[in-house]
Amino acid sequence: MNQFSRKVQSIKMTSTTLNLVVAACNNRGIGVDGRLPWRIRQDIDFFKKITTETKDPEKKNAVIMGRKTWFSIPEKFRPLKDRINIVLSREMKEIESGVYLSKSLQEALELIKDRDLSSKVEHVYIIGGSSVYKEVMTGPYKCRLYLTRIMADFECDTFLPDIDEKVFQKIENPLNVPSGIHSENGINFQFEVYDKLQT
């Protein structure tokens, strides 16, 4: 592929909307010791629903995640059911059957554009971790952020990048996203949706 072809291909990549799904507490913390510091069933159910449901029953959604996020998923739930799992890692040489391994986000997006997968994928979801969120949020990607805002304080060692209001615009929740403040296990939370402004 020559330089011009690569540039055209790169532009095409950015036209695909990347959907980021994440839960963060008051300090933008998203995890500690490779796990969520809270357990909110409604958030888990929302995550499953939004990353699994498709309009076309013949297609599936792709979920892209870093190596640490992959290993943070309990083994009995790996790979995530009814979704095309893609793990980003430069270190891993092999992975479970049916799971795709890519060295970078760009390589993962190229994989999805490949003839074998392009007809099978409906939407692309980024599900962690912090560095992958940052790459999408600050890079030349068209994206939508589905944020579960946890209205509480938790000790975390992994954080979501700051949501720059000059770059991201909060929108009215789409039909598939619950509105209002919810409560579970004494924790208040709400679902928010942001679209990245195109420059």
Automatic annotation (TrEMBL):
Q: Quote any Pfam family the record assigns.
A: DHFR_1
Domain DHFR span(s) in chain numbering:
17-196
Name the domain of life.
Answer: Eukaryota
Q: Top-level EC class, please? A: oxidoreductase
Provide the reaction this enzyme catalyses: (6S)-5,6,7,8-tetrahydrofolate + NADP(+) = 7,8-dihydrofolate + NADPH + H(+)
By its UniProt entry, which Gene3D superfamilies does this protein fall under? Dihydrofolate Reductase, subunit A
Q: What is its EC number?
A: 1.5.1.3
- Tell me a GO cellular component: mitochondrion
Q: Name a single GO biological process.
A: folic acid metabolic process
Keyword list (alphabetical) reads: NADP, One-carbon metabolism, Oxidoreductase
* PROSITE patterns from the UniProt entry: DHFR_1, DHFR_2, PROKAR_LIPOPROTEIN
Q: Does the keyword Oxidoreductase apply?
A: yes
* Pathway the protein acts in: Cofactor biosynthesis; tetrahydrofolate biosynthesis; 5,6,7,8-tetrahydrofolate from 7,8-dihydrofolate: step 1/1
Recorded hits in InterPro entries, A to Z, give:
DHFR (IPR012259), DHFR-like_dom_sf (IPR024072), DHFR_CS (IPR017925), DHFR_dom (IPR001796)
One GO MF term attached to the UniProt entry: NADP binding
Alphabetical list of PANTHER family matching this protein: DIHYDROFOLATE REDUCTASE (PTHR48069)
Give the record's family classification.
Belongs to the dihydrofolate reductase family.
- Name of the protein: dihydrofolate reductase
* Native source organism of the sequence: Potamilus streckersoni
